[in-house]
Specification:
about 30% helix; 14 strands; single chain; about 350 residues; alpha+beta; six-stranded mixed β-sheet
Length: about 350
Amino acid sequence: MAQQAYMTETDNGGSGHEPRTSRLQRLIDALTRGWRGDRRIWRRGLVLAACAVILALVMLAHAHIPNAVGNLGSLVETFLPWLGLFIPLLLLLALYRKSATALIATVLPAVVWMNLFGGLLTDKTTGGGDLTVATHNVNAENPDPSGTAREVAASGADVLALEELKASAVPAYEKALESTYRYHAVVGTVGLWSKYPLSDVEAVDIRLGWKRAMRATVTAPAGQVAVYVAHLPSVRVKLEAGFTARQRDKSADALGEAIADEPLENVVLLGDLNGTMNDRALNAVTSQMRSTQGAVGSGFGFSWPASFPMARIDQIMVKGAEPESSWTLPQTPSDHLPIAARVRLTTGQD
């Protein structure tokens, strides 16, 4: 009697609580209706299956796509995570075509994508750290330099790098940041603001003919760290020329050489590299440094374009120092999102 008190009558006299397995079975039956007994489910959708296999191969072997024609390999690698959008599309088409072959083939690109990017879907933040750094391409045409500076400084960064500084706007940035950062240096179109002393400030030659990269030693409470700020040349996608990135690639090689020769143990690179960690053209840098976002971030951390971020071309990388957390900051009037990270400086005794 007590059990019946918790049950309601239905029109067919049964219980109001339908077994979950029954609902699941009905869903499966609805999805597979018309498949049973159909011998063509293995012969249909062969083109879809082939597309799924090709997609898996492109993602798996992206490093082997040649750059000889229009830097096609780098273009694919820049937007590599977005290839995953084709997976649900292939799945829906396979269901529509009632093709078992296509359904099974779709598993291949799904497994490859998860192997490449699945780790970015979890929050790997560990907390801790003793130095907070941030970087922002402020956009030379930024209509509100002072407001942008204050917004980024509100992140609590101990060290802040700004790129694409217009000479006429530098005084506005300096004034807006002077109460937060006691030390700063501007070299060409890049600048570094710090709560801790700066020394050995110098331009880094990235083979451009003008100054878009710098290096400085920051003497933080936990120790000294070499901070590089860089704004590599922009890239373009042109119908007649493909992905034009030759100048950026040369500058990346030069930046990599400078970092490789760095004598300090702790190195942090902040800046707009106009390329992602997947782009083999940045190997001179990425092969010797770790991305804070890839190591301890949550999500992809896309930074550009700010209105609808599709790629992380702004980077915080470390060498020697240990990343603890990494995140994207709120949008400013720039076309890039600012990014930040917290790192732990290491010593030879660690």
